[in-house]
Amino acid sequence: MSDDGDDGDDADWPVPLSGVTETVVTTLGPNGKWNAAALGVFAGDPATATTWGSTRTRGNFHRQGEGYVQFVDDPVVFADAALSIDEYDDPVLEAACAWARVDATSVETGTDAGTEWERWKLEPVESAVLERTVPTIDRGFGAVIEATVAASRLGVDGYDDDELRDRLEYFADVVDRAGGQRERTALERVRTHSDW
Fold first, then answer.
1. Which of 60, 109, 140, 181 has a CA between 20 and 30 Å from the CA of residue 32?
2. CA-to-CA distance for 34 and 37, rounded, in angstroms?
3. Contact partners, residue 16, CB within 8 Å, separation at least 6
4. What sequence ranges are listed for the domain DUF447 (predicted)?
């Protein structure tokens, strides 16, 4: 795998971060497989991310102290990572346009509406840009990301299921009007992987 980024303790992110950047992270599980999951990375110095509940990502961060944060532009890959158990033999996904191997350090824990959360400091130690593309803006992709967030909250204390289902129907309408075939396929994965 080619490495266009920095190696060593002071590596940089392979792309600029702003706001909350939606990524897919892979973490090594006790079964020797790399578990893929959605992870929102909050820009800052250092960048942070929050895990909610007793997820595989949280457990693997505790066991391994690291993961591969990946920047993907395929909504199906994102939906599968966000809402299903998605495991691989290799840490870097074929769909990754760029990645950063990060050290993950727990910095804060708490509970919100009955759900435990844990905030992690993410420090890149190695990174690579694998593909450079001309960016396009597709409202359908954004709707898929928002649909995965809403679907992941169905049945969780502190959230109103009826309101979440209304949001999901709105996002489905956006995908139908403004998305392409990959976004439509991703939305079907959201339906398959959730109680929607």
1. 109
2. 10
3. none
4. 21-129, 139-191
- Residue count of the chain: 196
* Interval 139-195: pLDDT, tens: 999 999 999 999 999 999 889 999 999 999 999 999 999 999 999 999 999 999 999
Q: Please calculate the CA angle 76-68-120 and round it to the nearest 5 degrees.
A: 105
Of 139, 38, 149, 145, the residue nearest 86 (C-alpha): 38
The answer to whether the pTM exceeds 0.90 is no
CB 139 within 8 A of CB 182: no
Q: Residues 46-65: pLDDT tens digits?
A: 999 999 999 999 999 999 99
